[in-house]
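AP-4-A phosphorylase
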Amino acid sequence: MDHLWSPWRLQYVTGGHAPPGCVFCTADTGTDPGQAALVVHRGTMCFVILNLFPYNNGHLMVVPGRHIATLAEATPDELHEMMQLTQRAEIVLRTAYQPHGINVGINIGRAAGAGLAEHLHIHLVPRWNGDTNFMTTVGESRVLPESLDATAIRLRPLFVEAAAAAL
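Predicted structure tokens:
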């Protein structure tokens, strides 16, 4: 029998993945260097961060800097920048990975599937035809060929280019 090892997932599956406080707030302020290293782009009020436990390579989240849980709590300016960064993230992901599609979603509240319900965020997950293979359907696992560090290195300059093009 072959074994597939993914030791970085142990924190997640055992429930020990969340440091004290809000992971998005600590990433934004830099108080958790590990979380801050996942930030690939900063706007004025929002930022883009890699998902620590991604569904696919390039799985990003657009997050308001202010600790809010719902769209209803966001200001018009925050909503505008969240959508602008979501659009920019789509462009960056298409450039970096050439996916066949991208899932974009917001889960508000634990019952809706939010893993971090207390801080609003938008997921962007690149998808490819056939990416739900035997590992996902039978093994209930995903194989990600790129480390988070490599993903961050790939995406940061593309966000700089996309931001400059938007001016």
